[in-house]
Amino acid sequence: MTLPRRGAGRAAPAAAGIASVALGAGLGELVAALLAPPASPFAVIGGGLIDLAPAWAKDAAIGLFGTGDKIALLVGIAVVALVLAAVAGVLESRRPPWGRIVILALAGVGAVVATFRPDASLIAWLPAAVAGVVGAVALACLLRLLGADRRTPLIPQDDDDAAAPEPRAAVDPWSSAGPIDRRRFFAWTGATAGTGILAVIGANLLQTGSRTVTAVREALRLPRAATTAPPVPATAEFGISGLTKVITPNDRFYRIDTALIVPQVSTADWSLRIHGLVEDEVTITWDDLVALPLEESITTLACVSNPVGGDLIGNAKWLGYPIRLLLERARPTADADMVLSRSIDGFTASTPLEALTDDRNAILAIGMNDAPLPLEHGFPVRMVVPGLYGYVSATKWVTELEVTRFDRARGYWTERGWSERGPIKLESRIDLPRHAQGLSAGDTVIAGVAWQQQVGVSRVEVQIDDGPWQDAELATAISDDTWVQWRMPWTATEGDHTVRCRATSKDGERQTSDRVPPAPDGATGWHEIYVPVF
Ligand SMILES: Nc1nc2c(c(=O)[nH]1)N[C@H]1C(S)=C(S)[C@@H](COP(=O)(O)O)O[C@H]1N2
Ligand SMILES: [Mo]
């Protein structure tokens, strides 16, 4: 598609395009907020992109933006949408109705994608359709103000510049529109864009205003645990300022998922169905679940995307019911070897059946650090399985456990190139001093955390420059399923230093120095920091 070469006269149609698309998108968001929240055009496009994104892209996004990856994606979509809108505006002014056709086509794609989202309702196509029709009509109206809708002679776009005739004055919006038209055009364009922005704001207010699930959560009283976790030993925490706390507060817990809009699942709507290769299908409701004897356990959850030294890991006290006991009711058949858990928004994780039936604390969790699960951490019910990365075990907003086989089904990230199994790897991390943080010479402390869930850590060693490996002191581990703090005093001498650490598990395995990236089954290597001392 070739646009006229002349720069003059593009600004106004481009502004009209942007304003029209803003209005369409805003009304689309508003319709979604009112009628079909998961079908918000932004969320649908974002969700589609997230699902289509190859593993390396997810990795790069998390690497670049960390848990801000979703904001980054939304900003990216907005920028692309604005550029396309401007192009549609110019196109419409030069070759009507192609601008409108572009807008309607993009909206059409959005509508189709929306109906194929796993949580789509019957009217999931509606917000995108509204966005497209409103955007197209608004564009036609705004351009009419410019007088640009008059039959535009096609401008030949030949290679031969000199031969190309200048567009007639009538198609140049700036010269065709008189001063009054131009003022009206600006007023209407501004009003159109403004209404679009107000609609977006309104849509957001509506969503927070009708956050019934938040209200349900806030009114909820967790049942008392039948089995409480042993108290955290006082010696589990060195109490060094700047060192990661041994229990991660809920509002500081890392969040990783594919959900652009946090699924809103009320306790009243929640149920879990266990089916597939089982003798008896089992369905339990929220009331069934909270009536069961619940157990507390403290488990460190880690993301497979966590780079060496990264912070996509946290430790919490969970309240839940052993999945093992629910599977006992369903009685998996002998050929089953995997459970594909599914969340309300279609995410799936493949967990070895064994990890859910052996004696580890694999639970359906409803509580996190003495509070109901925060919405973004899976309210009302998620899975927590010690020893496995989140992508193969920690399904949030979980509603289904399909007992199956690894050779028959694959989880969300396995389909995108990650390993089908994801045991957490032995790792250790330096939290103090911070990488590249300048220190003054003298006594200080090097400290961090180390973990190997299900096995436990027996030793952490620290090396400064090319010196000998020295044993760090380990705090008391809460359990083998949690990380453990470590520290080593250091008299820092002037100069530039490199500090690295390595852990040894209770099995005698020493953390490997081989550096591998997170994909496909978790990063390895020693965490190494650079410390300038003055
Ligand atoms: N429904 C759903 N559950 C999910 C995910 C997801 O994308 N959707 N991501 C998983 C991944 S990759 C991780 S690391 C953990 C993170 O849990 P958190 O956000 O509570 O820390 O959730 C897991 N459960
Ligand atoms: Mo993850």
UniProtKB/TrEMBL annotation:
What are the Basic and acidic residues biased-composition ranges?
503-513
The membrane-spanning stretches of this chain are 12-36, 71-91, 98-116, 122-146, 185-206
Which Pfam families does this one have? Oxidored_molyb
Q: In terms of domain of life, where is this protein from? A: Bacteria
Q: Kindly indicate whether the keyword Membrane belongs to this entry.
A: yes
The ranges of region (Disordered) come to 503-524
Q: Where is the Oxidoreductase molybdopterin-binding domain?
A: 261-413
Gene Ontology BP annotations: sulfur compound metabolic process
Gene source species = Microbacterium ulmi
Q: Does the keyword Hydrolase apply?
A: no
Provide this UniProt record's keywords sorted from A to Z: Membrane, Transmembrane, Transmembrane helix
Supply the name of the protein.
Answer: Molybdopterin-dependent oxidoreductase
* Listed PANTHER family: SULFITE OXIDASE, MITOCHONDRIAL, SULFITE REDUCTASE
Q: Please list the GO terms describing molecular function.
A: heme binding; molybdopterin cofactor binding; sulfite oxidase activity
